[in-house]
Fold:
Amino acid sequence: MTNTIEVAPLGKKDFVSDQSVRWCPGCGDYAILAQTQKNMPTFGRKKEDFVFISGIGCSSRFPYYMNTYGFHSIHGRALPIASGVKLANPDLSVWVVTGDGDALSIGGNHFIHALRRNMDLNVLLFNNRIYGLTKGQYSPTSEVGKVTKASPFGSIDYPLNPPALALGSQATFVARTIDRWQSHLASILKRSYQHSGSSFTEIYQNCNIFNDGAYAPYTGADKLDNVIELEHGKPMVFAKGSKGIRLDGFTPTVVSMDDYSLDDLLVHDESNLDLANIISNWTSHPILPEPIGVIYCVDKPTYNKKVDEQISAAVEKLGPGDFNKLLNSGDTWIVE
Amino acid sequence: MPKTTKTLDLAVIRFAGDSGDGMQLTGGRFTDTAAVLGNDLSTLPDYPAEIRAPAGSLAGVSAFQIQFSSKEIHTPGDVPGVLVAMNPAALKVHLPELILGGTIILNTDAFSKKNLSLAGFESNPLEDGSLEENYKVFSIEMNKMVTHACEGMDLPAKMVLRSRNLFALGVLYWMYDRPLEPTENWLETKFAKKPAIAEANKRALNAGYNYGDTAEIFTTRYKIEKAILPPGKYRNINGNYATALGVLAAGEKAKMNLFYGGYPITPASDILHALSSWKQFGVKTFQAEDEIAGITSAIGAAFAGNLAVTATSGPGVALKSEALGLALITELPLLVINVQRGGPSTGLPTKTEQSDLLQAMYGRNGEAPIPIIAAATPGDCFFAAYEASRIALKYMTPVFLLTDGYLANGSEPWKIPSLEALAEIETNFIKVLPKEDEIYHPYNRDAKTLGRPWAIPGVPGLEHRIGGLEKKDGIGNVSYDPDNHHEMTMIRQEKVNRIANELPATEIIGEDKGDLLILSWGGACGSARSATEQLQEDGFSVSQVNLRWINPFPKDLGNILTQFKKVLIPEINNGQLIKLIRAEYLIDAQGYNVVRGKPLRASLLVEKAKELIG
Ligand code: SF4
Structure:
């Protein structure tokens, strides 16, 4: 990110707006909001430079609770609005808060294209695998067979895999974290902030009203057995060091550390797209642990930067635009 | 054989041929020469919608019509007096509109059996005598002529034949006594990297001209003197380019960064093309993934303090309508340009229509009034785009600019304005918190315009949230209060109404009272003007008003309407302005509605007017 300036230290309270928070008690959104408000002051950026843009859905109320610039827009359209903000003023730190319906269903087209362009945006997708605001219909990330008011006989829709979609859309930063994993969540927010380009973070968020327990295996007592924290350059161990992951050809397998040493394990490499593609497919896997952390991160020139470069190049080549000259260009003639 | 020269006031020529025959280029060159000679002129390009219809087919016919004159004119002409037909299909499509006794110039080499049957001719019209009965026909073997002219050149025969449009142009230049130099210079620049092509085209052009001079079939040539236009510096301009220039002018005048978000669509794409070429002005253009992203990116740029613009055509407006409501309720300035085309659905993408007025007026959920301005001529698109931007910035509102396919692609001589002479642009930027406030109130309004202050991200101390949910006036928090919603609904309407306070007195062409008022808007202005002038010349008590602002209506309009016994509203739709006028002023206005994807014919409007006057 650009423009990190020394400023008087800010605290969490600086980022808390005067609006009362209106999510259901117990909603996972609270934890995400708290971590964002707590960690943003540590980024060393002026508060007025943060902009939060959202679409429609429970998560999209987020901007109202941040005492920054914010825009609560229409369903699915947060990303192009954010793109316009960033293009108009590239010095801003632009954040998009969206949900599984907002980003992947009605806003699916914008999602893939914003990532493809490597627009310098931070996208936080609160994935609760349900439509909360409209009171409980299945979403594009709901599992097959989900019984909701709109699918009394079970949903027959196959779900999307958000990190895989993000990778397929050429995202340069793909991460996953979980609402209840507070310090992990904090570290991912920071990584997203630091990344220049489109940063996509999927946050597993519990909707305790319409889809309670969707992520129980990853947040309950045995969570460490079911989740693997990816760390760049580190071998893939989980379950308190008792299990590891090896690659058998392209196929990942879970091994017991009784039988293998750390040197035998797959080592995470954030810059390896092939590996990232493999990891993204562990999502909701019957055998493999759920991967969280930074799945993929590479540097690539951003769209907004290239826009500015083209403008500078044109000014350099042609000189700054002279409007009256342009008006009078082409074939002209004088009427006396 | 001695040749005579006749002086005319005006002429209407139509070039027609296959898509591959270069008719738009030919028309464009004729236009530029007429402009440089000082004629008043008006053009009507008529493209096929097919990407590339089969060669020689009816669907593949492309045409270009120009009216040029020594008097002031307002339309490209109802029907041509001269038809250049480069193949049988062109003749088939356009002959019905040629005036009786008119001139046809044909490329006989294209009248092969295959082309005749593609065009649906049962017998060869060149042989059965049917043409000569009603028209002056000049049949020329153009392929042979250009081949002969390019003899000795190291060019494949196919490339040589491509210059036959220049041969036809040369013939027309001879007929109307026009110089070849402007076209020759243009060819040299255009084909600077392909000198052989430039040379072949120049030879064809000269061959055509010399053919006119020497061939015995041509006995008369015509002279059309320069028109008396207001003094100044002129250029020829089409509507889309003028629109783009107008938007850029607003950005320059307001010293603001210009952002354009849009998605390619016929016939609006040339606005994107022009703006994206002006990077040295700092213009940012964003070709979005769809129409919705086009407008929403512009809304984002407006939130961040840019002069934000999106342009599209009717189907695109349909997709943008939810976002229009968002721009409206967040009270952000945004220019939305609709280059109207034939609808509904995909309709007639390359043809003109005025059928999106009610869409602009009402095509959104909720009570969502948006100001609407309509450009009257190609050159007027510049001023209308500037005015629309100015009002958007001053009142903090989205504004619709309606142009149409005819204005967008048609051209006319345009007296070049200067940036200095354009109206000043006021903005609502706010940089510091007003002393009396503890926190920023995004909906504290300007008492006169009701525009809200514009605090943009990056400005310390003015952090705030806006959005599509109803807001409490002043403080701007989400509000479900019934009284507040009622009040905000009224404020949003009142804001539009107040624009009328600054509109100049409505211009009336003719007397300010009489038997008939022709009330036009947008691209129908020219036809209405021609009809009005004709009727006035014929001694009828007829005046014209062309509406520039349709939402709001000018304040003096109601009074003007009552001064006429009858009101006639010509539109290229099934009656849209007429519904607004009847509803607002409770008058029994009459409509003249022809929806053929073409400009209205002034002569038919004259007949309708006479019928009404009785
Ligand atoms: S419905 Fe679910 S997601 Fe929405 S606020 Fe309530 S708990 Fe949270």
Observations:
- Chain A has two domains: 12-219+301-305, 229-287.
